[in-house]
Design a protein that fits this description.
Layout lengths: L1 E11 L2 H12 L8 E8 L4 H11 L2 E8 L2 E3 L4 H11 L3 E5 L1 E5 L11 E10 L2 E7 L9 E2 L3 E4 L16 H11 L3 E4 L7 E3 L13 H13 L3 E7 L3 H12 L6 E7 L5 H12 L3 E5 L6 H11 L4 E4 L5 E2 L3 H11 L5 E11 L20 E3 L1 H11 L11 E3 L9 E2 L2 E2 L4 H10 L3 E13 L9 H17 L9 H21 L8 H41 L4 H42 L1
Parallel strand pairs: 1-2, 1-3, 5-11, 7-12, 13-14, 13-16, 14-15, 18-23
Antiparallel strand pairs: 3-10, 4-12, 5-10, 6-7, 6-9, 7-8, 16-20, 17-23, 18-20, 19-23, 21-22
C-alpha cells in the first residue's frame, strides 16, 4: 500500500455535474511526494459491490469515496486529511456530517443532533449550515455523501445495494473493527452540494430493516427489563411475552425467581433456549421482594431500567416510545419517563380508571422533577406510576432502589425511587397508555400490614422531602402535612388492635410526632411571612389610599393571616391535650 497516495472514487450519475466536481478536484493543492488517482464508477447497479472492486484495485492508503454532486471547495483538503489521520492512527474514517444521537430510523439526517459544516444550495440560494457538536469527539454515524478512510474495510454487500445507509453502515463497520469514526474537522468550509442533483434511489428493497437488524445494538442504548417473580408462573409468562414482543430490540431481560417451587424455572427453560437476551436466576433461598428487586438491579447491564412486576403487562411499543424521548435528550436532563397506565383484572380485562390511574396530562409533557413530585407528595397520589410504568436512567439513581434519604421503604418502594431520581432531573409524562397494572386476589396491597407500611412510608416522604428540595413553598408543605395527618388517622382507625404493638405502628407514630412539631414551626413561619406582607401592603395603602387593587390584596393577606393565627391556636390547644393524654397513657402502663 502506498502511504502517500490518494484515491478519489467517484460515483457518477450525471456527467455534467461530475465535470464540475472534477474542476474542484483539479484545484486541490497536492503536497510534495503525494500521488493522486481517480476511479470513476458509472451505471452502478450494486454500489457496495462496485466500491469493493474499486477499493481492491487501488493501493492508495487514503481513499475518498464521494458522490458526483459533492464538491470539495477548499484547496487544502488533501493536506488537512493527512494531518488528521497521521495524528490519530486509531481514526479509521471521516465524513462531512455525522451524529451521536440517531433517531429510530438510523439515518444521519433524521437524527436529533448533527455535527459538521456544509455549504448547500437551498431554494435557489447558497447557505452555510453549521451544525452543533464537537468535531473532536468520536462519531457514531456518518452520512455517506463523502467518506474518507485510511484503512480498507469491505463494504457490506449483504445489507446494502445503493447509497441508502452507505455512510451509516461503513462508519459502524469501522467502529466494530476497533477504529474511530469522526466528522472532518472543518475550521474552514470544505464541502458544497446541491440536493437538486441527487438522483432518487429505488427504495423498494427493505434496506432499513436489514440495516437496523444488523446494527441495532450499536445504534441504540441497552434497556434492562427486570422481572422479580414469586410463585406466579401463569401471570409471569404473560409478562415475559409482553417484553419479548417489544418493538425496541436492544433489551436484556433479567428474571430473578424467588419462588418456593420450580414451576417458573421449568417454564422459562424453553424461553432461555430461544432468546439469548434472557438472564435467569433461581434464588437458592427466599430473598423477599425488596432484596429480590435489588438483585435484579445488580445483574442488570443496561443504561436504562424498567421493572416489570410479574403480574403486569407492557404495551408492545412501550420501550420504543419512551426511548425515543431519551434519545432526543441531548444533555441527559431527563431521569424518568412515565405514562398513563390502565388497570386490568385477573383475566386481563381493562377496568375503569380510578383516581390513581386518572390521566395526569392530555398531551405528552416535559416537567421539572421537583414540581412533578410535589404534586404527588401533596395528595399522596402516585400518578407517576408503579415500577412497571416507569423507565428510568440507571446512572441517575444514586441510592439503592426502594430507598429514599437512607430509609428502606416497605410499601412505597416506587415513590422512594422516583423521589430520588426527580430531585436531580426532569421527567416526561406520555399521555398514551403504555402499561397495564393487574389487580387480583393474591396481591398483598390490600392487607392491613401493607396499609400501615404505606402510611409510614408516606409520613417519611413528607418528613424527608424538604431536604431534597421538595415542598419548598410553605403553603405546599403545610398542605402535605395536613393531608398526611388525615391519611395516617384513617389508617390508624382501620387497623386491628393486633397492630398496635407492631414496630411499624410505633415508627409511624414517631414520624407523626416529628411532623407535628415541624407543622407548628411552619405555621409560625408562614404567619410571620404574611405579617411582613401585610406591613408592606399597609405602607402602599398609606401612599395610594384609593387603589382598589392594593386594598383587595391587603384584605386577602389579612384573611390568610387570621386563618393561620386560628390554626396555630387550635394546634397548640390540641398539642397540649395530646401531651397530657400521652402522660396519662404512660402512667396507665406503669
Amino acid at each position: 500500500m502506498s502511504k502517500k497516495k490518494f484515491s478519489f472514487i467517484f460515483v457518477i450519475s450525471d456527467e455534467e455535474v461530475y465535470e464540475e466536481s472534477r474542476c474542484y478536484l483539479n484545484r486541490l493543492r497536492i503536497p510534495d511526494g503525494v500521488e493522486v488517482e481517480v476511479h470513476e464508477l458509472r451505471a452502478v447497479k450494486n454500489l457496495p459491490l462496485a466500491l469493493n472492486h474499486a477499493m481492491h484495485r487501488s493501493d492508495a492508503k487514503y481513499k475518498v469515496y464521494l458522490q458526483d454532486y459533492l464538491f470539495i471547495v477548499n484547496p487544502n483538503f488533501i493536506e488537512e486529511v493527512i494531518k488528521r489521520f497521521e495524528s490519530s492512527p486509531e481514526l479509521g474514517i471521516m465524513g462531512m456530517v455525522g451524529t451521536n444521537h440517531p433517531s429510530l430510523t438510523g439515518k444521519v439526517f433524521e437524527s436529533y443532533q448533527l455535527v459538521g459544516n456544509i455549504i448547500e444550495r437551498e431554494a435557489g440560494t447558497i447557505q452555510l449550515k453549521r451544525f452543533n457538536g464537537e468535531f473532536t469527539k468520536p462519531i457514531k454515524l456518518l452520512d455517506g455523501k463523502i467518506l474518507i478512510t485510511q484503512y480498507d474495510l469491505p463494504w457490506r454487500e449483504d445489507i446494502l445495494t445503493s447509497s441508502e445507509y452507505l455512510g451509516e453502515s461503513q462508519s459502524l463497520e469501522f467502529t466494530k473493527s476497533g477504529f474511530k469514526a469522526a466528522v472532518f474537522n472543518q475550521n474552514e468550509d470544505y464541502f458544497f452540494y446541491d440536493p437538486d442533483f441527487i438522483e432518487l434511489q429505488d427504495l423498494s428493497e427493505p434496506v432499513q430493516g436489514k440495516f437496523l437488524s444488523e446494527y441495532y445494538s450499536l445504534l441504540f442504548p441497552k434497556v434492562s427489563v427486570l422481572i422479580p417473580t414469586y410463585n406466579r408462573p401463569y401471570y409471569f409468562e404473560q409478562a415475559l411475552q409482553s417484553v419479548l414482543t417489544q418493538t425496541y430490540k436492544h433489551v436484556e431481560i433479567i428474571v430473578c425467581d424467588d419462588s418456593t417451587n420450580d414451576e417458573t424455572q421449568k417454564l422459562i427453560d424453553y424461553y432461555t433456549q430461544i432468546y439469548p437476551n434472557i438472564v435467569y436466576k433461581k434464588n437458592p433461598k427466599n430473598l423477599g421482594q425488596f432484596n429480590n428487586d435489588l438483585q435484579c438491579m445488580e445483574l442488570s447491564s443496561g443504561d436504562f431500567i424498567n421493572f416489570l412486576m410479574d403480574d403486569d403487562l407492557f404495551h408492545p411499543q412501550k420501550i420504543e416510545k419512551m426511548m425515543a424521548y431519551y434519545m432526543q435528550d441531548i444533555n441527559d436532563e431527563v431521569n424518568l419517563i412515565t405514562s398513563h397506565r390502565h388497570l386490568i383484572d385477573a383475566e386481563g380485562n381493562i377496568l375503569h380508571n380510578r383516581k390513581v390511574t386518572k390521566r395526569a396530562f392530555e398531551q405528552d409533557t416535559l416537567l421539572n422533577g421537583i414540581e412533578f413530585a410535589d404534586y404527588a407528595l401533596k395528595y399522596n397520589w402516585n400518578f407517576i406510576g408503579e415500577p412497571t410504568t416507569v423507565l428510568f436512567r440507571k446512572s441517575a439513581l444514586n441510592s439503592p432502589f426502594g430507598t429514599f434519604c437512607g430509609r428502606e421503604y416497605g410499601c412505597n418502594v416506587d415513590m422512594a425511587t422516583w423521589l430520588t431520581l426527580l430531585s436531580e432531573g426532569k421527567a416526561i409524562y406520555i399521555s398514551e397508555t403504555l402499561s397495564y397494572f393487574r389487580e387480583h386476589s393474591n396481591q398483598q396491597l390490600q392487607s392491613n400490614l401493607m396499609k400501615l407500611m404505606g402510611a409510614t412510608d408516606y409520613a417519611h416522604e413528607i418528613l424527608a422531602a424538604p431536604s431534597k428540595g421538595y415542598l419548598s413553598q410553605l403553603e405546599d408543605l403545610l398542605y402535605a402535612m395536613e393531608f398526611c395527618f388525615e391519611y395516617s388517622s384513617k389508617t390508624f382507625d382501620s387497623l386491628d388492635e393486633v397492630y398496635i404493638n407492631h414496630p411499624i405502628y410505633s415508627e409511624l407514630n414517631q414520624y407523626i410526632l416529628q411532623l407535628k412539631l415541624k407543622y407548628s414551626e411552619t405555621l409560625i413561619k408562614q404567619r410571620q411571612h404574611y405579617k411582613e406582607e401585610l406591613e408592606r401592603v399597609e405602607q402602599l395603602l398609606s401612599k395610594f389610599e384609593e387603589n382598589e387593587k392594593i386594598s383587595d390584596e391587603y384584605g386577602r393577606l389579612l384573611m390568610l393571616y387570621e386563618i393561620l393565627s386560628i390554626k396555630i391556636d387550635m394546634y397548640e390547644s390540641d398539642r397540649n391535650r395530646g401531651t397530657q393524654s400521652a402522660i396519662n397513657e404512660e402512667s396507665r402502663k406503669i
